[in-house]
Amino acid sequence: MAKKIFSHSRISAFEKCRLKYKFRYIDEIIPEVERTIESHLGSSVHKALEWLYSQIKQKKIPSVEEVIMVYSENWNEEYDDEITIVKKNFTKEDYFNKGVGFLINYYTENHPFNDNTIEVEKEILINLDETGEYKLRGFIDRLAYNSQTGEYEIHDYKTSGTFPTDEEIENDRQLALYAIAIKEIYGKEKGVRLIWHYLSFRKKIHSERTNEQLEKLRENTLKIAKDINSTTSFPPTKSSLCHWCEYKKICPAWGNNFEKQTKLGGFVKLDKKENGDKLDIFK
Asked: Are 60 and 140 found together in one domain?
C-alpha cells in the first residue's frame, strides 16, 4: 500500500487555492520566486539558534559573541544582490542589525539555557489514519522537556513584525499537529506545550491542546488529505492573497497562462532527482 505523505504547507495551499496547489504539487511548476530580505533574515536567525542549541546539547554554552558570529557567517554566505528589499527606507544593514538584536535579546533572556532541550530541527512523521496510509511530515524548531512541569515543549521562532491574535494562536494547526507526533512518541498521557517566540516583540506565547482537540484535528486533517487525493478539479480562488502569490503570472484568473510565461522565462519544472522532497516541506 503506497503511503501518501503530506505537509502542513501542502494542505494549506490546497485550502487557500486549489489551482495553486495543482501548479506546485501536481504540475510541479517551480516559479522564480523573489527572495526577500525578511525571509533571509528569518533563515539566518533560525540557523544561528539551531547552532546555539546544538552546542548546548553537547554541554557547551557559546558566548553571545559566538552566536552573532555564526549569524553573520550565515547572513553573508547566503546574501546576494538579488534579494528584494521592499521597504526602501530600510537597508540591508538595518535588517542585519535587527537580527543581531533578536539574538542578543533572546540570549540574554534565556541564558543559561537550562530548559533541557532534547532536539533541534526534529523531523516528525504523523499517522493521520490507523493504517498509516496517510501521513504528515514536518520539522520542529526545538523540542524540550520541562522537568518541573513534566511537559514536552514545542518551540517555534518567529521573526515577522506581525503579532498574532488569540484566535490565530488557538486555531494554529502546525504546532498542534506536531503535538500529535510528540504524543505518539512519548505517550498520549504526556502534556505538550506549544511555545512561539515572537522575537520582534520579545514575547513568548504559550498554548495547549487537549487530547480531544488533537484527535479532532487529526480527523479534520485526514479528511482534507483524502479530499486532496480524490480531487480532479482545481479552480482558482481569487482573494487578497493573490497579490503575494508566486503563480499569479500564469494564473488564468488573472488572464495569464503557463505557456506564455515559459517562453518569457522564469518558470521551470521541478527536477525530482535534484531536489528530492525538500521543496515539498515548508514550515
From this structure: no
